[in-house]
Design the sequence.
């Protein structure tokens, strides 16, 4: 006999009583329990399974198989016993908010862009939805604003099983052809969809929806969405970040971005001035080592490109090989230039003696080394 699905009639039923009809070992130390009726929603339609308590056993997963709802529990229950079930309501209501919010935005997006929702995943942190039509971020945000207005108008939700002849006349969304009784879920004016999931009683209970991203996916897009409590938590954290950034920059939170832009401009100007000063110092070093022959320079921390540019400047004047090492004991970046010379034997010895990694060709090589300044000096003293 099929399990009576109490969640199908009343998504807000939090506790119930039932009779255990079967209990058998599951995977590991778990047990598969079936009941004559249940309020636990089994995973399906993109919505995760309910968790909770059943007769003192923790319900870890719920699946439906051939009309039976199987509860994965952490301990066995006695067949024929009456048990009390209590679902994890915070988890369930979160799923209801995410699922209902997804229906509202999907109904609006599919109508606006003549597309289909071809993928839906309700993750622990974010909802992802795939559509088979292109759309821009600005267009998605326009639908977000419409969806939130619809939510705040608090439209009632309706779920029903129409007769076959009535179903044939209903323009409902569905990812696949359906057989047998079809459950239609409807947010009037926003969405009409075949769905087995649990939903809020009215759109206002979704609270709000917030899109996080819009990424190109094949011929369409993938959207990331938060609804209800998840969206509120995300926006609260985002506000706290803006507030802290504003405090650091001595501006109000909503003025943080222009302040960051000004700071970026100042930083860019500072980097340009530093680069000019660095270039001047490189030229002075190059002049100092004019016709000096082979040169070794061990410098404080420089950026990788600066190591190469310093080496290039000095090698252009010294008339021999130039090796530049930059960093501190245990971690150095290096570059070696000796125009017209084969550096491979030198680099091979360096890699072994200085615990170095790197290579190159045509008189130029670069890499990194895990060694000390004394080891660098000793290595090149042996190779004047």
Sequence:
């Amino acid at each position: 006999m099929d399990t009576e699905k109490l969640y199908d009639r009343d998504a807000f039923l939090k506790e119930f009583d039932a009779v255990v009809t079967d209990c058998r070992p599951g995977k590991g130390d778990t047990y598969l329990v079936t009941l004559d009726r249940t309020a636990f929603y089994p995973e399906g339609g993109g919505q995760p399974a309910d968790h909770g308590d059943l007769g003192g056993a923790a319900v870890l997963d719920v699946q439906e198989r051939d009309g039976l709802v199987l509860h994965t529990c952490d301990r066995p229950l006695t067949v024929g016993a009456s048990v009390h079930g209590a679902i994890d309501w915070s988890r369930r209501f979160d799923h209801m908010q995410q699922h209902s919010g997804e229906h509202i935005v999907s109904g609006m997006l599919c109508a606006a862009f003549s597309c289909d929702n071809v993928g839906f995943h309700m993750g622990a942190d974010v909802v992802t939805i795939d559509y088979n039509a292109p759309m821009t971020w600005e267009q998605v945000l326009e639908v977000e604003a419409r969806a939130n207005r619809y939510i705040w108008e608090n439209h009632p939700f309706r779920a029903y099983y129409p007769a076959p002849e009535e179903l044939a006349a209903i323009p409902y969304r569905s990812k696949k052809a359906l057989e047998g009784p079809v459950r239609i879920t409807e947010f009037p004016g926003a969405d009409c969809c075949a769905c087995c999931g649990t939903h809020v009683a009215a759109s206002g209970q979704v609270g709000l929806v917030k899109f996080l991203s819009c990424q190109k996916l094949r011929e369409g897009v993938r959207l990331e969405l938060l609804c209800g409590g998840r969206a509120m938590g995300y926006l609260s954290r985002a506000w706290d970040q803006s507030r802290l950034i504003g405090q650091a920059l001595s501006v109000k939170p909503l003025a943080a971005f222009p302040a960051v832009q000004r700071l970026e401009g100042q930083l860019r100007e500072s980097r340009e001035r530093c680069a000019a000063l660095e270039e001047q110092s490189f030229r002075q070093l190059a002049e100092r080592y004019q016709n000096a022959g082979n040169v070794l320079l061990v410098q404080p921390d420089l950026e990788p490109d600066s190591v190469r540019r310093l080496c290039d400047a000095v090698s252009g004047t010294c008339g021999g090989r130039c090796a530049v090492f930059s960093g501190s004991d245990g971690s150095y970046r290096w570059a070696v230039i000796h125009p017209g010379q084969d550096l491979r034997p030198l680099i091979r010895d360096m890699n072994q003696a200085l615990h170095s990694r790197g290579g190159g060709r045509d008189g130029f090589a670069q890499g990194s080394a895990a060694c000390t300044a004394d080891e660098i000096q000793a290595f090149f003293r042996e190779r004047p």
